[in-house]
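Purpose: get a first structural picture of the assembly so the mutagenesis plan has something to point at.
Setup: two entries, given in the order below. No constraints added.
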Amino acid sequence: MRKPLISGGIVFLIVLLFFAIMPSVYSNEDLFFQAMVYLALAQGVNILYGFTGYLPFGYVGFFGTGAYAASLCITLLHFPPVLGIIAGGLASVVLSILLSPLLRLSGAYFAIGSLAASQMVYYIVSNPSLQNITNGPYGINLESVYQPHTSYVTMIVILALVMGVVIYIRNSRFGLSLQAIREDPVSAGMAGVHVVRQRAIAWFLSALIAGLVGGAFAWHISVFYPTTVFDLNISIFAIVFTLFGGVTTVLGPVLGMFVLYGFYNLIGISEPQYFQLIYGILILLLVLFLPSGIVSIVKRRGHYVP
Amino acid sequence: MLVYTVISGILFGLFCSLMGIGLNLIFGVMRFVNLAHGDFLMLGAFGAYFAYTLYGISPAISVVINMIVMIVIGALIYYAFVPRLLRSRDPEMLSLIFFFGISQVIEALSVIFFTNNPRSIDWSALGTANYQLFGQSFQESWVVSALISVIAIVLVYFYLYHTKLGYATRAVMGSLDEAASSGINVHRVSAWAMGIGLALAAAAGALSPFFLGSITPNMGSDITTTSFSIIIIGSLGNPLGTVIGGLIYGLSSMFMQSYIPSWANLVPYLLLFLILLFKPSGLLGKVVRHA
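Result (structure tokens, whole complex):
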């Protein structure tokens, strides 16, 4: 029990130090901010898909809800930004409670159902009829509270929380019970695992993460449109990063994010179509040859992966 | 207004059924969610566009050409990838990612070869006359497209219920293991189903310029989601249930567009969500089939 915790802790420290130090080495703070956003979201997907087997295609719905709830609390209710971010996280949890009947579905039905739910939230938020509240399709402007450094630090704190939670789940009875439910809910229930409750906790937790990250994202970029924060590619990136690295581990999403997102920043912005092509081919190769992600290369040799 | 909305809803709904039926066939046989469905449809649309603009071939003939080409491509994709996919731990989830990869590759290649400019086929490509139905007039392209859709759906019915291959296909849909143990060549049947499924998508693609407006390489993902709502409303894994789903979808979106346009986009997702929650097996489904 001790050794896994230490190796998890090492990953935790390396990741956080990297993001704390890098902006002073290479001055593109936004790049590292986005990388943290994707890493935290990938870990959120990891909690839900890696540990419980539910693939949330509509994960971006929680991200967007967090971003909008935080922004509205800041602009309309004049919350200080950090409080706004917490409100964003809570709004996401409320949405996940409303959507919890989705957990009755399984497999592809859940994936598509959550996608439909996120699109519904998007169409409601961006609807011109609600322009008085959400400003409809014209987006949000938070320039009055724009503080890129403070929001960067806030994001590091959120990432630390997220990584901490994933390390806890990876090494605790709670995580084991989730994996037991994923493999076979009936047997897990027979063995005394509270199936519905544990599953729901994982679901709320991953919604909370996406909500907090969304709030921090809104504060950091400060001017955005509904299409920015409800972009389906955000869920898909998070899912692909997680799967590419390897689910049910702390390290997998980290590796997946660094490899794929680094690659995206190298060529994805100047040559999007070639990036998309290589990205697609990478996914096909991954599915065919490494279906359990990069970490499975190490795992197959019998080594422990945090 | 009401009569016009109802009839145009039915015409649009028939096209929607054709749009969804291929996806449903593939899901029914292989339990795979083809996330690249909309992209194959887009390829069909570009096929029809180039056939029409370069060689003057009518989209109605492109439907047939598209189908033949896609049956071959579908079978090739099946034999190249699917047997390997089936051996993994969680083939259903992995197939989602797999088809997402395929859709990325198709989209990227189409942007590279076709560029991002929106294209459209002339309204008159399927005839210029106006049809009078119940005192309302409709463009010939809508009526002809709806007719082609009906013919394609009837052919699917014929394939499933009156051919030997169709019996085998339905057996595989019922239970893969039992079908295999009674001597059915599951791979051959599934490869045909994959080919026919993609062929139907491409057939709908050839007609899509008349219903969905201009065609671009990025139109695929929206079409995939719409097709999903259609087949889930009908019932997953029952190809003919798609017709009901398509009609309900077509009618409700036409009604929303006529009466409350600003919320019209919400319809497919709302329907999908409600049906998933209250009747996950779809309107025609008898038992919940675990995906």
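The longest strand of chain B covers residues 130-133.
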